[in-house]
Amino acid sequence: MLLQISGEFNLHPPQLLRWVDLNCRNCLPDKLQIGCGCKDGGCTFWEWLDPKPTDHQIEILVDLRDAVKALRTKNQTLEVENSELSYLLDEAQAKIAQLVTENEKATVLARDQEAKIAELVKEKEKASVLAKDQEAKEVQGKLVFSKVGKACCRAVIFLVVCLALLVAMFSKGPKTMKPQLL
Predict the structure, then answer these.
(1) Which of 19, 89, 91, 163 has the highest CB neighbour number within 10 Å of its CB?
(2) What is the distance in angstroms between the CA of the first residue and the CA of the last residue of the chain?
(3) From CA 91, how far away is CA 100, in angstroms rounded?
(4) For each of the chain's 182 residues, which pLDDT tens digit applies?
(5) Is the pTM of this model over 0.90?
(6) Beta strand pairing status for 18-21 and 2-5?
(7) What is the CA radius of gyration of the chain?
(8) Is residue 143 part of a domain?
(9) Which H or E element spans position 10?
């Protein structure tokens, strides 16, 4: 349903009639829409015809405007905080990556050190075995030396006794000596 109205609505062109569409499908309920009434298809201009808002409506609109401003400010603050936290997160991830790399290097070094320690333990065990073998040879050498030493001592004593007998035999002069048993 179309109603013809007239008045100054600052539309183009101002001398044409304006039409109010009461059955507009894209309109809000209980709202009047005014559009251009040009006969050649008209332009795309349209405007709502609303009554003047009450003081209560103005108060609600101001409160809504203030709430929107507060939310926009809070949103901006949160966006700044988000970018700061994102930057800090990137730094933390870089530090974590660096620490992981250092940890991997330290693990490799620790494995190398463990391998060296294992080699040193094997060398120490070999040295210990060689030392025990050397000690056993020395003990065996001492035993052999002591047996040889004892045999040599006996031989020296025997030679000294024999020499003493010879000296005794030849020192009495030209007399013939009779061997005497001791």
Answers:
(1) 19
(2) 171
(3) 14
(4) 344 444 444 444 444 444 444 445 555 555 555 555 555 555 656 566 666 778 998 899 899 999 999 999 999 999 999 999 999 999 999 999 999 999 999 999 999 999 999 999 999 999 999 999 888 888 777 776 677 777 787 888 888 888 888 777 777 655 555 666 65
(5) no
(6) antiparallel
(7) 62
(8) no
(9) none
Q: How many domains does the chain have?
A: 2
Q: What three-state secondary structure class fits 5?
A: strand
d(CA 13, CA 40): 13
Q: By residue range, what is the domain housing residue 110? A: 53-131
Residues 21 and 59 in one domain: no
Residues 44 and 71 in one domain: no
Going by C-alpha positions, the residue among 22, 45, 49, 26 that lies closest to residue 35 is 45
Q: For residue 178, is it within any domain?
A: no
CB 35 within 8 A of CB 42: yes
